[in-house]
Specification:
Order of helices and strands of chain B: HHHHHHHHHHH
Helix content of chain A: 25-40%
Distance between the termini of chain A: 35 Å
Number of helices of chain A: 10
Number of strands of chain B: 0
Largest interface: A-B, 58 and 43 residues
Radius of gyration of chain B: 21 Å
Largest sheet of chain A: 6 strands, mixed
Distance between the termini of chain B: 38 Å
Strand content of chain A: 25-35%
Oligomer: heterodimer
Number of strands of chain A: 14
Number of helices of chain B: 11
Shape of chain B: elongated
Helix content of chain B: 55-70%
Order of helices and strands of chain A: EEEHEEHEHHHEHEHEEHEEEHEH
Radius of gyration of chain A: 23 Å
Shape of chain A: elongated
Structural class of chain B: mainly alpha
Chain lengths: 332, 281
Amino acid sequence: MSAPPEVSVDTGPDGGPPMAVRAVGLHKTFSSARGEVKAVQGVDLDVAQGEFFGLLGPNGAGKSTTIGMLTTLVVPTAGRAEVCGLDVTKRPVDVKRRIGMVSQNNTLDTDLDAFENLEFRGRFFGMGRKDARRRADELLEMFNLTDRRRGKPMELSGGQAKRLMICRALVHRPQVLFLDEPTAGLDPQTRVNLWEVLRKLQADGQTTVLTTHYMEEAEALCDRVAVIDHGKVLAKDTVEGLKASAGADTVITVTYDGPAPEGVTALRDREAIGKVEITGSQVRVFARESEGVLGELVAAGAAAGVGVTDAAQLRPSLESAFLTLTGREYRE
Amino acid sequence: MTTDQALLAPPAMRTGLTRTFLAMMARDARVLRKNFTGTFLRVLMQPIMFVFVFSYVLPKIGAAGAMGGAAGDASFATILVPGLVASSMVMQAMMAAIMPLMMELTWQRSITDRALAPLPIPLLAIQKITAAALQGLLGGLLVFPAVLFIHAEGQAPEVHVGNWAVLIVMLVAGSLLAASGGMLMGTVIDPQKAQILFAVILLPVTMLGCVYYPWAALHDVRWLQIASLANPLVYVSEGLRAALTPDVGHMATWAFMLAVLGGTAVLMWIATRTFTKRVLT
C-alpha cells in the first residue's frame, strides 16, 4: 500500500491515525409540504483505515442519506460525523479533499468527454494541467477505458460510465472512497467485473465505504457490514459474524390456504426453535435445528383442515440474518 | 488490469480555493469553446435581424419615420445600439446561468460532481454566476459591432464613448446582475414550468426594457414609465445609453448606478443562498 498523499494533523483516540470514518448518533429528517420523513435515526459507525465497509439494507433504508452526510452534501439534523478526524459540517472543504464519491446516479459532466471529466477533476483538486492530463490517461488505461477516451458520457454503456465515475473518484487519490449502490442497474456480468475492480482497490489498501442492497455484493466485498433499515443500524459485524449470530437460524416460511392453524404454536416449546411468527395465513419459524419442522407445519395444517400453498426454507446466510434482524423478507 | 498505480500518490496537488475556482472557470471556458458557434449564433441572430429590419429595410422603404420621432433628432439606429447590446448581454448571462442549473439540479443531479470539489458551496455559486456573467459580457461585445455597422445610408448610429467608467461598470455589473437573476430563477423555478418562465418573465423584460426607446421618451405613457422601473434591464439599457450615446436623453446617472450596483449585490446574495439550499439538503 502506498502512503496517503497528505498527512492528517488529527489523530485518533490513542494518538494513532484517526478512524477513516466515525459517526455518532447521526439523524436526518427531511421536511416537506407533505410532512416529515425521518430518513436516518441515530446511526453510529466506525470505519478503520484500509477497511472495506458495507452499509447493507433495502431501498429507502437510509443508506444514501447516511453517505450524503458523510460526504458533506446532506446536513445532519443531529449527531456528528468525522472523516479522517475532520468534522463534516465544520470543515467540509478539508473533508472533500480527502474523499472520493461515486453516486448512484450518473453524475458525469455531459458537456465534457470521458478524458476531460478526469482532467478537470484533477484540476479542481489543484493539479496542474499537464499532470491532470497524465493522470487522466493513466486511469483510463488502468480501467480499460482508453478506447472510450473521447466518448461522451451519454454514449458510454452503464458499466463503462460506472467505471469512469470510479476513475473520477480516484483521480486525487482519496483517503476514503464512498460508493453508493455501485452496481445497481448493471447486468450480472458487468457487476462481477466491477467487483473485480473493487477487490483490487481493496487489496491495495483503499479504505472504502459501500452501500448496497445486494446480499451477494456485501458478501463478496466487505470486511464488515452494518445492516441498516428504517434509518437505524440493526447490527454491525463481519459477514461471518453476522451469519454466526443473527443468521444462525434456518428460516422456514409456510403459507396456508386458510388461517394459520393453532397447532403450530406448540413448536414454541421446542428447545431448537428460536421464534415462531404468525401473520394471518403465514407462519415463519426460526430454527437452529430445522429437521422435521416443515413436516410438522404441514401436519398441523392438515389437522386443522388447511392446506399448504407455499413453503420456503432459507439456510443460514446473510439473507437469513437480515430476515432475523428486520423481520422483513429481503427484496431486491 | 492492475490498479496498483491507481493508488500511487498522484501528481502534486496544490491546495487553495483560488486554484479550484479558476479550474472551474477553465472547465466552463472549455465547454463554451466547444459550443461557441451554436451559442453565439443564437445570441447574434436576434439583434442582427432587428437592426437589419429597423435600421436598414424600414428606412430604405421610407417607413422609419415613426421610429425616430420619440427621441428627438437621434436616428433609431442610435437608440438601438445601447439597447440591443444591453438586452443581448442580459439575456445571454441569464440563460447561461439558468440552462445548466435546470439540468444540474434535476434529472441525475449532476451538480454533485462540482459540489464535491474542494470549494465551499456559496463560492461555487459565485463561480457559476461569474462564468455566466462572462458569457453574457462576451455576448454583448459580439453584438456591438453588428448593431453598429448594419444600417442604411445616412442612418448611421451616433455612438461615442462618453464615459468609460460608466461603460465598464455597466458591462461588468450589468452582466453580473443578470447572471445572479438567472441563478435565482434557475434555483427556485420548476424546470417543467420553464416555458412559462420564458413567456411570462423574459419576453416582457426584453420588450419593455427600454431597448427600443429611451426611458425619458416614455413621459407620455407615465404609467409605463413608472412600471418600467421594476425591470432591471431598463437600468442596464439606460446606463449603456448614458455611456455610449450621451446625446440621447437618459436616466440620471445616480439612479441607474444605484439600481444596477445595489441590485447586483442583493441578487447575488439571495441567489447564492437559494443555490446553497438546493445543493446541500
